[in-house]
Amino acid sequence: xxxxxxxxxxxxxxxxxxxxxxxxxxxxxxxxxxxxxxxxxxxxxxxxxxxxxxxxxxxxxxxxxxxxxxxxxxxxxxxxxxxxxxxxxxxxxxxxxxxxxxxxxxxxxxxxxxxxxxxxxxxxxxxxxxxxxxxxxxxxxxxxxxxxxxxxxxxxxxxxxxxxxxxxxxxxxxxxxxxxxxxxxxxxxxxxxxxxxxxxxxxxxxxxxxxxxxxxxxxxxxxxxxxxxxxxxxxxxxxxxxxxxxxxxxx
Amino acid sequence: xxxxxxxxxxxxxxxxxxxxxxxxxxxxxxxxxxxxxxxxxxxxxxxxxxxxxxxxxxxxxxxxxxxxxxxxxxxxxxxxxxxxxxxxxxxxxxxxxxxxxxxxxxxxxxxxxxxxxxxxxxxxxxxxxxxxxxxxxxxxxxxxxxxxxxxxxxxxxxxxxxxxxxxxxxxxxxxxxxxxxxxxxxxxxxxxxxxxxxxxxxxxxxxxxxxxxxxxxxxxxxxxxxxxxxxxxxxxxxxxxxxxxxxxxxxxxxxxxxxxxxxxxxxxxxxxxxxxxxx
Lengths: 251, 279
Prior knowledge:
The structure holds 2 protein chains of 2 kinds. By secondary structure, chain A is an alpha/beta fold. Chain A has helices at residues 44-51, 74-81, 99-110, 115-128, 144-156, 174-191, 202-208, 226-230, 235-242; strands at 4-15, 18-29, 33-38, 59-64, 67-68, 84-87, 162-166, 194-198, 211-216, 219-225. In chain A, helix 3 crosses helix 4 (115-128), helix 3 runs parallel beside helix 5 and helix 4 crosses helix 5 (144-156). Chain B has one domain (39-277). The mean pLDDT of chain B is 90. Chain A binds chain B through residues 49, 52, 54, 74, 78-79, 81-82, 84, 86, 88-90, 92-95, 105-106, 109-110, 154, and chain B through 142, 145-147, 149-157.
Protein backbone atom coordinates (compact mmCIF):
# COMPACT_ATOMS: atom_id res chain seq x y z
CA UNK A 1 0.00 0.00 0.00
CA UNK A 2 1.30 3.47 -0.94
CA UNK A 3 2.04 6.18 1.64
CA UNK A 4 -1.19 7.71 3.00
CA UNK A 5 -2.15 11.19 1.82
CA UNK A 6 -4.86 11.38 4.47
CA UNK A 7 -5.79 9.41 7.54
CA UNK A 8 -8.30 9.17 10.32
CA UNK A 9 -6.75 8.30 13.64
CA UNK A 10 -9.05 6.84 16.30
CA UNK A 11 -11.88 9.18 15.33
CA UNK A 12 -15.25 9.28 17.08
CA UNK A 13 -18.22 11.33 15.90
CA UNK A 14 -21.55 11.72 17.67
CA UNK A 15 -24.66 13.61 16.58
CA UNK A 16 -26.51 14.15 19.85
CA UNK A 17 -27.06 10.71 21.33
CA UNK A 18 -26.30 8.91 18.08
CA UNK A 19 -22.79 7.53 17.70
CA UNK A 20 -21.80 7.60 14.02
CA UNK A 21 -18.10 6.75 14.20
CA UNK A 22 -16.45 5.02 17.13
CA UNK A 23 -12.64 4.88 17.31
CA UNK A 24 -12.48 4.70 13.55
CA UNK A 25 -9.08 4.63 11.82
CA UNK A 26 -8.44 4.69 8.09
CA UNK A 27 -5.54 5.43 5.79
CA UNK A 28 -6.05 6.79 2.28
CA UNK A 29 -3.15 5.67 0.06
CA UNK A 30 -1.75 8.35 -2.24
CA UNK A 31 -2.38 8.09 -5.98
CA UNK A 32 -5.05 5.41 -5.68
CA UNK A 33 -8.83 5.16 -5.68
CA UNK A 34 -10.13 4.09 -2.28
CA UNK A 35 -13.79 3.12 -2.10
CA UNK A 36 -15.65 3.16 1.19
CA UNK A 37 -18.59 0.79 1.38
CA UNK A 38 -21.11 0.16 4.11
CA UNK A 39 -24.78 0.17 4.98
CA UNK A 40 -26.91 3.26 4.49
CA UNK A 41 -26.46 5.61 7.45
CA UNK A 42 -23.23 3.88 8.50
CA UNK A 43 -21.27 7.17 8.47
CA UNK A 44 -19.52 6.94 5.08
CA UNK A 45 -20.37 10.52 4.07
CA UNK A 46 -19.27 11.63 7.55
CA UNK A 47 -15.79 10.32 6.72
CA UNK A 48 -15.69 12.50 3.59
CA UNK A 49 -16.78 15.56 5.59
CA UNK A 50 -14.04 14.84 8.14
CA UNK A 51 -11.42 14.57 5.41
CA UNK A 52 -12.52 17.95 3.99
CA UNK A 53 -12.62 19.63 7.40
CA UNK A 54 -16.35 20.33 7.03
CA UNK A 55 -16.90 18.43 10.25
CA UNK A 56 -14.64 18.06 13.26
CA UNK A 57 -14.58 14.84 15.27
CA UNK A 58 -15.59 14.64 18.94
CA UNK A 59 -12.31 12.83 19.56
CA UNK A 60 -9.36 11.57 17.54
CA UNK A 61 -7.42 13.22 14.73
CA UNK A 62 -7.75 13.72 11.00
CA UNK A 63 -4.57 14.28 9.00
CA UNK A 64 -4.01 15.56 5.50
CA UNK A 65 -0.41 14.55 4.91
CA UNK A 66 1.11 15.42 8.30
CA UNK A 67 -1.21 18.32 9.09
CA UNK A 68 -3.85 17.75 11.74
CA UNK A 69 -7.08 19.22 10.38
CA UNK A 70 -8.62 19.30 13.87
CA UNK A 71 -6.19 21.99 15.02
CA UNK A 72 -6.40 24.22 11.97
CA UNK A 73 -7.74 27.78 12.07
CA UNK A 74 -10.54 28.69 9.65
CA UNK A 75 -8.07 30.44 7.30
CA UNK A 76 -5.89 27.30 7.26
CA UNK A 77 -8.93 25.12 6.58
CA UNK A 78 -9.87 27.35 3.64
CA UNK A 79 -6.32 27.07 2.29
CA UNK A 80 -6.39 23.29 2.77
CA UNK A 81 -9.73 22.92 1.01
CA UNK A 82 -8.29 24.43 -2.15
CA UNK A 83 -6.20 21.23 -2.39
CA UNK A 84 -9.24 19.00 -2.03
CA UNK A 85 -12.09 18.56 -4.49
CA UNK A 86 -15.51 17.47 -3.26
CA UNK A 87 -18.13 16.06 -5.63
CA UNK A 88 -21.44 16.00 -3.77
CA UNK A 89 -24.09 13.29 -4.06
CA UNK A 90 -26.56 15.60 -5.82
CA UNK A 91 -23.82 17.76 -7.35
CA UNK A 92 -24.77 20.82 -5.22
CA UNK A 93 -24.20 23.19 -8.14
CA UNK A 94 -25.18 26.79 -7.36
CA UNK A 95 -28.52 27.06 -9.10
CA UNK A 96 -28.26 30.83 -9.62
CA UNK A 97 -25.15 30.36 -11.81
CA UNK A 98 -24.55 28.72 -15.17
CA UNK A 99 -22.54 25.50 -15.35
CA UNK A 100 -19.59 27.52 -16.66
CA UNK A 101 -19.76 29.97 -13.76
CA UNK A 102 -20.07 27.11 -11.27
CA UNK A 103 -16.90 25.48 -12.58
CA UNK A 104 -15.10 28.85 -12.91
CA UNK A 105 -15.91 29.92 -9.35
CA UNK A 106 -12.94 28.34 -7.49
CA UNK A 107 -10.55 29.68 -10.14
CA UNK A 108 -12.03 33.19 -9.95
CA UNK A 109 -11.87 33.20 -6.15
CA UNK A 110 -8.51 31.54 -5.53
CA UNK A 111 -6.33 32.47 -8.49
CA UNK A 112 -5.23 35.60 -10.31
CA UNK A 113 -5.83 34.09 -13.74
CA UNK A 114 -7.41 36.27 -16.42
CA UNK A 115 -10.97 35.56 -17.58
CA UNK A 116 -9.57 34.23 -20.87
CA UNK A 117 -7.30 31.76 -19.07
CA UNK A 118 -10.11 30.71 -16.75
CA UNK A 119 -12.41 30.12 -19.71
CA UNK A 120 -9.79 27.90 -21.37
CA UNK A 121 -9.25 25.83 -18.22
CA UNK A 122 -12.98 25.47 -17.56
CA UNK A 123 -13.70 24.42 -21.14
CA UNK A 124 -10.88 21.86 -20.98
CA UNK A 125 -12.27 20.49 -17.68
CA UNK A 126 -15.81 20.37 -19.04
CA UNK A 127 -14.52 18.58 -22.14
CA UNK A 128 -12.84 15.98 -19.95
CA UNK A 129 -16.23 15.10 -18.44
CA UNK A 130 -18.01 15.39 -21.80
CA UNK A 131 -19.93 18.57 -21.00
CA UNK A 132 -18.26 21.33 -23.00
CA UNK A 133 -21.60 22.11 -24.70
CA UNK A 134 -23.26 22.95 -21.34
CA UNK A 135 -21.08 25.96 -20.44
CA UNK A 136 -23.99 28.41 -20.69
CA UNK A 137 -26.69 26.08 -19.35
CA UNK A 138 -28.27 26.51 -15.94
CA UNK A 139 -28.01 23.47 -13.63
CA UNK A 140 -31.80 23.03 -13.80
CA UNK A 141 -31.45 22.31 -17.52
CA UNK A 142 -29.18 19.28 -16.99
CA UNK A 143 -30.08 15.62 -16.43
CA UNK A 144 -29.04 13.80 -13.23
CA UNK A 145 -25.96 12.22 -14.83
CA UNK A 146 -24.88 15.51 -16.42
CA UNK A 147 -25.30 17.31 -13.10
CA UNK A 148 -23.01 14.79 -11.43
CA UNK A 149 -20.39 15.20 -14.15
CA UNK A 150 -20.62 19.00 -13.84
CA UNK A 151 -20.09 18.50 -10.09
CA UNK A 152 -16.99 16.41 -10.92
CA UNK A 153 -15.72 19.20 -13.17
CA UNK A 154 -16.11 21.81 -10.41
CA UNK A 155 -14.37 19.48 -7.93
CA UNK A 156 -11.31 18.89 -10.13
CA UNK A 157 -10.92 22.24 -11.92
CA UNK A 158 -8.24 23.44 -9.48
CA UNK A 159 -6.15 20.26 -9.91
CA UNK A 160 -6.62 19.07 -6.32
CA UNK A 161 -4.40 16.48 -4.68
CA UNK A 162 -7.37 14.62 -3.25
CA UNK A 163 -10.85 14.28 -4.74
CA UNK A 164 -13.78 13.11 -2.63
CA UNK A 165 -16.82 11.62 -4.39
CA UNK A 166 -20.00 11.19 -2.35
CA UNK A 167 -22.15 8.44 -3.89
CA UNK A 168 -21.37 9.42 -7.50
CA UNK A 169 -23.42 6.62 -9.06
CA UNK A 170 -26.55 6.80 -6.91
CA UNK A 171 -29.79 7.42 -8.76
CA UNK A 172 -28.55 7.04 -12.33
CA UNK A 173 -29.09 4.32 -14.93
CA UNK A 174 -26.47 1.56 -15.58
CA UNK A 175 -25.09 3.24 -18.69
CA UNK A 176 -24.56 6.56 -16.89
CA UNK A 177 -23.15 4.63 -13.91
CA UNK A 178 -20.56 3.11 -16.26
CA UNK A 179 -19.83 6.54 -17.73
CA UNK A 180 -19.40 8.14 -14.29
CA UNK A 181 -17.17 5.31 -13.06
CA UNK A 182 -15.06 5.63 -16.17
CA UNK A 183 -14.88 9.42 -15.69
CA UNK A 184 -13.63 9.01 -12.08
CA UNK A 185 -10.92 6.59 -13.24
CA UNK A 186 -9.89 8.85 -16.10
CA UNK A 187 -9.81 11.99 -13.93
CA UNK A 188 -7.65 10.24 -11.36
CA UNK A 189 -5.09 9.33 -13.99
CA UNK A 190 -5.30 12.71 -15.72
CA UNK A 191 -4.80 14.69 -12.49
CA UNK A 192 -2.52 12.14 -10.85
CA UNK A 193 -4.65 12.72 -7.77
CA UNK A 194 -5.94 10.50 -5.02
CA UNK A 195 -9.66 9.71 -4.91
CA UNK A 196 -11.97 8.56 -2.15
CA UNK A 197 -15.31 7.29 -3.37
CA UNK A 198 -18.39 6.46 -1.33
CA UNK A 199 -20.59 4.01 -3.17
CA UNK A 200 -23.07 1.18 -2.81
CA UNK A 201 -22.63 0.06 -6.38
CA UNK A 202 -20.40 -3.00 -6.13
CA UNK A 203 -19.97 -3.39 -9.90
CA UNK A 204 -18.57 0.13 -10.27
CA UNK A 205 -16.42 -0.36 -7.15
CA UNK A 206 -14.86 -3.51 -8.63
CA UNK A 207 -14.31 -1.57 -11.84
CA UNK A 208 -12.53 1.48 -10.37
CA UNK A 209 -11.23 0.75 -6.86
CA UNK A 210 -7.61 0.10 -5.98
CA UNK A 211 -8.52 -0.26 -2.31
CA UNK A 212 -11.78 -0.91 -0.48
CA UNK A 213 -12.67 -0.17 3.14
CA UNK A 214 -15.87 -1.39 4.72
CA UNK A 215 -17.49 0.63 7.48
CA UNK A 216 -19.77 -1.12 9.92
CA UNK A 217 -21.17 0.17 13.22
CA UNK A 218 -18.82 3.14 13.29
CA UNK A 219 -15.56 1.32 12.57
CA UNK A 220 -13.61 0.00 9.58
CA UNK A 221 -13.98 -3.78 9.66
CA UNK A 222 -12.21 -4.60 6.38
CA UNK A 223 -9.56 -2.73 4.44
CA UNK A 224 -7.36 -3.78 1.55
CA UNK A 225 -7.23 -4.31 -2.18
CA UNK A 226 -10.45 -5.29 -3.97
CA UNK A 227 -9.38 -8.95 -4.05
CA UNK A 228 -8.41 -8.97 -0.37
CA UNK A 229 -11.76 -7.58 0.68
CA UNK A 230 -13.69 -9.88 -1.66
CA UNK A 231 -11.87 -12.86 -0.14
CA UNK A 232 -12.42 -11.63 3.43
CA UNK A 233 -13.63 -14.27 5.81
CA UNK A 234 -15.55 -11.72 7.84
CA UNK A 235 -19.21 -12.84 7.62
CA UNK A 236 -20.43 -9.22 7.73
CA UNK A 237 -18.29 -8.32 4.70
CA UNK A 238 -19.44 -11.43 2.85
CA UNK A 239 -23.12 -10.78 3.62
CA UNK A 240 -22.77 -7.19 2.37
CA UNK A 241 -20.91 -8.16 -0.82
CA UNK A 242 -23.45 -10.88 -1.59
CA UNK A 243 -26.37 -8.59 -0.77
CA UNK A 244 -27.88 -11.37 1.31
CA UNK A 245 -30.61 -10.91 3.88
CA UNK A 246 -29.25 -13.85 5.85
CA UNK A 247 -26.28 -13.17 8.06
CA UNK A 248 -24.99 -11.23 11.06
CA UNK A 249 -26.01 -7.77 9.78
CA UNK A 250 -29.15 -6.72 11.66
CA UNK A 251 -31.89 -5.64 9.23
CA UNK B 1 -46.75 11.82 59.89
CA UNK B 2 -43.89 10.54 57.69
CA UNK B 3 -46.05 7.65 56.53
CA UNK B 4 -48.92 10.04 55.64
CA UNK B 5 -46.52 12.21 53.64
CA UNK B 6 -45.16 9.15 51.81
CA UNK B 7 -48.69 8.00 50.98
CA UNK B 8 -49.56 11.45 49.60
CA UNK B 9 -46.35 11.46 47.52
CA UNK B 10 -47.08 8.02 46.11
CA UNK B 11 -50.74 8.75 45.31
CA UNK B 12 -51.61 8.78 41.55
CA UNK B 13 -52.77 12.42 41.79
CA UNK B 14 -49.49 13.58 43.31
CA UNK B 15 -47.50 11.65 40.69
CA UNK B 16 -49.63 13.13 37.88
CA UNK B 17 -49.08 16.66 39.29
CA UNK B 18 -45.34 15.98 39.49
CA UNK B 19 -45.24 14.71 35.91
CA UNK B 20 -47.09 17.80 34.65
CA UNK B 21 -44.86 20.16 36.66
CA UNK B 22 -41.65 18.50 35.48
CA UNK B 23 -42.96 18.50 31.91
CA UNK B 24 -43.85 22.21 32.09
CA UNK B 25 -40.48 23.08 33.62
CA UNK B 26 -38.65 21.05 31.00
CA UNK B 27 -40.64 22.81 28.28
CA UNK B 28 -39.78 26.26 29.69
CA UNK B 29 -36.15 25.18 30.02
CA UNK B 30 -36.05 24.03 26.40
CA UNK B 31 -37.60 27.31 25.21
CA UNK B 32 -35.08 29.39 27.18
CA UNK B 33 -32.23 27.23 25.92
CA UNK B 34 -33.48 27.57 22.30
CA UNK B 35 -33.74 31.35 22.70
CA UNK B 36 -30.22 31.60 24.10
CA UNK B 37 -28.91 29.38 21.30
CA UNK B 38 -30.69 31.60 18.74
CA UNK B 39 -29.30 34.80 20.27
CA UNK B 40 -25.80 33.30 20.49
CA UNK B 41 -25.87 32.04 16.92
CA UNK B 42 -27.15 35.38 15.63
CA UNK B 43 -24.44 37.26 17.53
CA UNK B 44 -21.73 34.98 16.12
CA UNK B 45 -23.06 35.49 12.59
CA UNK B 46 -23.10 39.27 13.08
CA UNK B 47 -19.55 39.19 14.41
CA UNK B 48 -18.36 37.15 11.42
CA UNK B 49 -20.14 39.57 9.09
CA UNK B 50 -18.62 42.66 10.71
CA UNK B 51 -15.14 41.11 10.60
CA UNK B 52 -15.55 40.29 6.90
CA UNK B 53 -16.71 43.83 6.10
CA UNK B 54 -13.83 45.43 8.00
CA UNK B 55 -11.37 43.20 6.15
CA UNK B 56 -12.88 44.74 2.99
CA UNK B 57 -13.57 41.30 1.57
CA UNK B 58 -16.58 42.52 -0.37
CA UNK B 59 -18.05 41.19 -3.61
CA UNK B 60 -19.13 44.43 -5.25
CA UNK B 61 -20.89 42.95 -8.30
CA UNK B 62 -23.02 40.69 -6.10
CA UNK B 63 -23.75 43.63 -3.76
CA UNK B 64 -25.07 45.63 -6.73
CA UNK B 65 -27.15 42.66 -7.83
CA UNK B 66 -28.65 42.42 -4.34
CA UNK B 67 -29.36 46.19 -4.37
CA UNK B 68 -31.54 45.48 -7.39
CA UNK B 69 -33.17 42.31 -6.01
CA UNK B 70 -33.78 43.41 -2.42
CA UNK B 71 -34.12 47.16 -2.86
CA UNK B 72 -35.23 48.20 -6.32
CA UNK B 73 -37.74 45.36 -6.62
CA UNK B 74 -39.33 46.45 -3.33
CA UNK B 75 -39.79 50.04 -4.51
CA UNK B 76 -43.33 49.74 -5.89
CA UNK B 77 -44.79 48.04 -2.79
CA UNK B 78 -43.03 50.48 -0.47
CA UNK B 79 -44.39 53.44 -2.46
CA UNK B 80 -47.93 52.05 -2.55
CA UNK B 81 -47.94 51.23 1.16
CA UNK B 82 -46.59 54.62 2.11
CA UNK B 83 -48.86 56.54 -0.26
CA UNK B 84 -52.04 54.95 1.08
CA UNK B 85 -50.88 55.20 4.70
CA UNK B 86 -50.20 58.93 4.28
CA UNK B 87 -53.56 59.32 2.57
CA UNK B 88 -55.56 57.45 5.21
CA UNK B 89 -53.75 59.25 8.01
CA UNK B 90 -54.64 62.57 6.44
CA UNK B 91 -58.20 61.44 5.76
CA UNK B 92 -58.72 60.56 9.43
CA UNK B 93 -57.11 63.73 10.79
CA UNK B 94 -57.63 66.57 8.28
CA UNK B 95 -61.44 66.89 8.35
CA UNK B 96 -61.54 66.69 12.16
CA UNK B 97 -58.69 69.19 12.48
CA UNK B 98 -60.42 71.70 10.23
CA UNK B 99 -63.69 71.31 12.18
CA UNK B 100 -61.87 72.15 15.43
CA UNK B 101 -59.85 74.96 13.85
CA UNK B 102 -56.49 73.19 13.65
CA UNK B 103 -56.38 72.89 9.86
CA UNK B 104 -53.07 74.68 9.65
CA UNK B 105 -51.41 71.96 11.72
CA UNK B 106 -52.40 69.02 9.50
CA UNK B 107 -49.30 69.22 7.29
CA UNK B 108 -47.08 69.16 10.35
CA UNK B 109 -48.92 66.27 11.98
CA UNK B 110 -48.90 64.10 8.85
CA UNK B 111 -45.29 64.77 7.86
CA UNK B 112 -44.05 64.52 11.46
CA UNK B 113 -45.60 61.06 11.85
CA UNK B 114 -44.59 59.84 8.41
CA UNK B 115 -40.95 60.97 8.62
CA UNK B 116 -40.31 59.90 12.22
CA UNK B 117 -42.33 56.70 12.47
CA UNK B 118 -44.42 55.45 9.56
CA UNK B 119 -41.90 55.91 6.75
CA UNK B 120 -39.01 53.94 8.30
CA UNK B 121 -41.20 51.35 10.00
CA UNK B 122 -43.62 50.62 7.17
CA UNK B 123 -40.79 50.40 4.64
CA UNK B 124 -38.98 48.00 6.96
CA UNK B 125 -42.07 45.85 7.52
CA UNK B 126 -42.84 45.67 3.80
CA UNK B 127 -39.21 44.87 2.91
CA UNK B 128 -39.07 42.33 5.75
CA UNK B 129 -42.10 40.55 4.30
CA UNK B 130 -40.44 40.38 0.93
CA UNK B 131 -36.66 40.36 1.40
CA UNK B 132 -36.34 38.59 4.75
CA UNK B 133 -38.48 35.69 3.52
CA UNK B 134 -36.55 35.61 0.23
CA UNK B 135 -33.17 35.54 1.99
CA UNK B 136 -34.25 32.83 4.44
CA UNK B 137 -35.80 30.72 1.68
CA UNK B 138 -32.84 31.09 -0.70
CA UNK B 139 -30.18 30.36 1.90
CA UNK B 140 -32.34 27.63 3.46
CA UNK B 141 -32.77 25.95 0.11
CA UNK B 142 -28.99 26.19 -0.45
CA UNK B 143 -28.43 24.63 2.98
CA UNK B 144 -30.69 21.62 2.42
CA UNK B 145 -29.31 20.99 -1.08
CA UNK B 146 -25.71 21.00 0.25
CA UNK B 147 -24.82 24.19 -1.66
CA UNK B 148 -23.61 25.88 1.55
CA UNK B 149 -21.34 22.89 2.23
CA UNK B 150 -20.22 23.05 -1.40
CA UNK B 151 -19.21 26.69 -0.87
CA UNK B 152 -17.16 25.74 2.18
CA UNK B 153 -15.60 22.80 0.33
CA UNK B 154 -14.46 25.24 -2.38
CA UNK B 155 -12.69 27.26 0.30
CA UNK B 156 -15.29 30.05 0.26
CA UNK B 157 -16.88 31.49 3.40
CA UNK B 158 -20.70 31.60 3.18
CA UNK B 159 -20.74 34.83 5.24
CA UNK B 160 -18.56 36.66 2.71
CA UNK B 161 -20.22 35.06 -0.26
CA UNK B 162 -23.88 35.34 0.77
CA UNK B 163 -24.48 37.45 3.87
CA UNK B 164 -22.21 40.48 3.37
CA UNK B 165 -23.51 41.45 -0.11
CA UNK B 166 -27.12 41.25 1.11
CA UNK B 167 -26.36 43.25 4.24
CA UNK B 168 -24.51 46.04 2.44
CA UNK B 169 -27.17 46.17 -0.27
CA UNK B 170 -30.03 46.58 2.16
CA UNK B 171 -28.08 49.04 4.31
CA UNK B 172 -27.87 51.21 1.20
CA UNK B 173 -31.33 50.53 -0.20
CA UNK B 174 -33.62 50.60 2.85
CA UNK B 175 -32.71 54.20 3.85
CA UNK B 176 -33.20 55.17 0.18
CA UNK B 177 -36.57 53.44 0.09
CA UNK B 178 -37.44 55.24 3.34
CA UNK B 179 -36.70 58.62 1.72
CA UNK B 180 -39.07 57.71 -1.13
CA UNK B 181 -41.65 56.47 1.38
CA UNK B 182 -41.38 59.73 3.36
CA UNK B 183 -41.86 61.87 0.27
CA UNK B 184 -44.75 59.90 -1.21
CA UNK B 185 -46.44 59.54 2.21
CA UNK B 186 -46.35 63.29 2.81
CA UNK B 187 -47.57 64.06 -0.73
CA UNK B 188 -50.37 61.49 -0.40
CA UNK B 189 -51.41 63.15 2.85
CA UNK B 190 -51.25 66.59 1.26
CA UNK B 191 -53.40 65.48 -1.69
CA UNK B 192 -56.15 64.08 0.57
CA UNK B 193 -55.98 67.11 2.92
CA UNK B 194 -56.56 69.32 -0.11
CA UNK B 195 -59.31 67.13 -1.63
CA UNK B 196 -61.25 66.34 1.55
CA UNK B 197 -60.58 69.28 3.90
CA UNK B 198 -59.65 71.99 1.38
CA UNK B 199 -56.33 72.68 3.06
CA UNK B 200 -54.13 74.58 0.65
CA UNK B 201 -50.87 73.02 -0.59
CA UNK B 202 -48.86 76.02 0.60
CA UNK B 203 -50.40 75.85 4.10
CA UNK B 204 -49.83 72.10 4.32
CA UNK B 205 -46.22 72.33 3.20
CA UNK B 206 -45.47 75.37 5.36
CA UNK B 207 -46.74 73.48 8.40
CA UNK B 208 -44.70 70.41 7.40
CA UNK B 209 -41.50 72.48 6.99
CA UNK B 210 -42.09 74.19 10.33
CA UNK B 211 -42.61 70.92 12.20
CA UNK B 212 -40.16 68.50 10.61
CA UNK B 213 -36.47 69.29 10.79
CA UNK B 214 -33.47 67.76 9.03
CA UNK B 215 -32.64 66.00 12.29
CA UNK B 216 -35.96 64.12 12.15
CA UNK B 217 -35.18 62.86 8.66
CA UNK B 218 -31.72 61.70 9.72
CA UNK B 219 -33.10 59.89 12.78
CA UNK B 220 -35.69 58.18 10.57
CA UNK B 221 -32.92 57.04 8.23
CA UNK B 222 -30.87 55.78 11.18
CA UNK B 223 -33.86 53.63 12.12
CA UNK B 224 -34.00 52.29 8.55
CA UNK B 225 -30.32 51.37 8.79
CA UNK B 226 -30.91 49.37 11.98
CA UNK B 227 -33.95 47.66 10.43
CA UNK B 228 -31.87 46.70 7.39
CA UNK B 229 -29.35 44.95 9.65
CA UNK B 230 -32.17 43.12 11.48
CA UNK B 231 -33.85 41.98 8.24
CA UNK B 232 -30.69 40.58 6.66
CA UNK B 233 -29.22 39.01 9.78
CA UNK B 234 -32.46 37.28 10.84
CA UNK B 235 -33.14 36.08 7.28
CA UNK B 236 -29.57 34.85 6.85
CA UNK B 237 -29.39 33.14 10.22
CA UNK B 238 -32.70 31.36 9.72
CA UNK B 239 -31.63 30.32 6.23
CA UNK B 240 -28.21 29.05 7.24
CA UNK B 241 -29.62 27.00 10.12
CA UNK B 242 -32.41 25.40 8.07
CA UNK B 243 -32.91 21.69 8.60
CA UNK B 244 -35.31 19.17 7.15
CA UNK B 245 -35.84 19.61 3.41
CA UNK B 246 -38.60 21.62 1.74
CA UNK B 247 -40.72 21.76 4.91
CA UNK B 248 -37.72 23.17 6.78
CA UNK B 249 -37.25 25.88 4.15
CA UNK B 250 -40.89 26.97 4.48
CA UNK B 251 -40.60 26.95 8.26
CA UNK B 252 -37.43 29.05 8.14
CA UNK B 253 -38.97 31.65 5.82
CA UNK B 254 -42.09 32.00 7.95
CA UNK B 255 -40.16 32.09 11.19
CA UNK B 256 -37.72 34.67 9.78
CA UNK B 257 -40.51 37.05 8.74
CA UNK B 258 -42.42 36.72 12.03
CA UNK B 259 -39.28 37.19 14.17
CA UNK B 260 -38.13 40.08 12.02
CA UNK B 261 -41.43 41.99 12.12
CA UNK B 262 -41.75 41.57 15.89
CA UNK B 263 -38.18 42.82 16.34
CA UNK B 264 -38.83 45.79 14.05
CA UNK B 265 -41.80 46.89 16.19
CA UNK B 266 -39.89 46.42 19.45
CA UNK B 267 -36.76 48.17 18.19
CA UNK B 268 -38.82 50.98 16.70
CA UNK B 269 -40.21 51.71 20.15
CA UNK B 270 -36.80 51.49 21.79
CA UNK B 271 -35.20 53.76 19.20
CA UNK B 272 -38.08 56.27 19.32
CA UNK B 273 -37.73 56.37 23.09
CA UNK B 274 -34.03 57.12 22.99
CA UNK B 275 -34.03 59.30 19.87
CA UNK B 276 -37.09 61.41 20.64
CA UNK B 277 -38.93 60.88 23.94
CA UNK B 278 -35.89 60.07 26.09
CA UNK B 279 -34.01 63.02 24.71
